[in-house]
UniProtKB/TrEMBL annotation:
<protein>
    <submittedName>
        <fullName>Isochorismatase family protein</fullName>
    </submittedName>
</protein>
<dbReference type="InterPro" id="IPR036380">
    <property type="entry name" value="Isochorismatase-like_sf"/>
</dbReference>
<keyword id="KW-0378">Hydrolase</keyword>
<dbReference type="Pfam" id="PF00857">
    <property type="entry name" value="Isochorismatase"/>
</dbReference>
<feature type="domain" description="Isochorismatase-like">
    <location>
        <begin position="23"/>
        <end position="197"/>
    </location>
</feature>
<dbReference type="InterPro" id="IPR050272">
    <property type="entry name" value="Isochorismatase-like_hydrls"/>
</dbReference>
<dbReference type="GO" id="GO:0016787">
    <property type="term" value="F:hydrolase activity"/>
</dbReference>
<dbReference type="InterPro" id="IPR000868">
    <property type="entry name" value="Isochorismatase-like_dom"/>
</dbReference>
Length: 207
């Protein structure tokens, strides 16, 4: 049976409305994920460069550009169940270089940085309030990893009432298979999966 027909017959894969006040959420492009000297990282230069084209334009338009990082206190390492399953993440300690936003992203001093302790940028943070207070109706989600923190953020963004766009070339993962599978699944259920060129055109239409 044709896979796409199964989803379309079930009513999945509809287009997401695009609002007039988007924000860009850059998930975990920190050195712990982008600098391959660390075992938790993978090659992310392409997704970072594609993301930067979007963030530079959005910032120039006065649209919110928000970054996230995972950063733990030492006492959390032995207490959180996620760090038992994904033990390598315990290296992401507050105050270390691993939790700093990669300078290649073009982050600027005025950009908000959300510190999180789980996969989703919404769980246990004030991100939803920050977006709502800024009048945001559409979330453009980029970052790392596609199958982990990006996906969790996308699901929670939808559940928080935002339309979601995911430029696939702005997301990175440790392997191709989970990257592709999760982009496909997000496209069917939670977001419009597109590319950076389309997002830039969308932003142009707003200006």
């Amino acid at each position: 049976m044709d896979q796409q027909k199964v989803y379309s017959d079930a009513g999945f894969g509809q287009s997401v409305p695009r609002g007039t006040r988007p924000a860009v959420i850059v998930v975990d492009f920190t050195y712990g994920f982008t600098d391959t000297q660390y075992p938790t990282a993978a090659e992310m230069s392409g997704p970072i460069a594609a993301t930067r084209r979007i963030t530079d334009k959005a910032r120039a338009m006065g649209l919110p550009v928000i970054y996230t990082t995972i950063a733990y206190q030492p006492w959390e390492v032995g207490a959180l169940p996620w760090l038992k399953k994904a033990a390598g993440m315990a290296a992401l300690l507050q105050g270390t270089r691993l939790v700093e936003i990669d300078a290649a992203t073009g982050i600027e001093p005025g950009d908000p940085v959300i510190v999180k302790h789980g996969a989703s940028a919404f769980f246990g943070t004030n991100l939803a309030g920050l977006l709502t207070g800024s009048g945001v109706d559409t979330a453009i989600v980029t970052g790392a990893t596609t199958s982990g923190c990006v996906r969790a953020t996308v699901v929670d963004a939808v559940q928080s009432g935002f339309n979601v766009l995911v430029p696939g070339d702005c997301c990175g993962d440790r392997a191709v298979a989970p990257h592709d599978a999760n982009l496909y699944d997000m496209a069917q259920k939670y977001a419009d999966v597109t590319d950076s060129k389309d997002i830039l055109s969308y932003l142009d239409s707003l200006s």
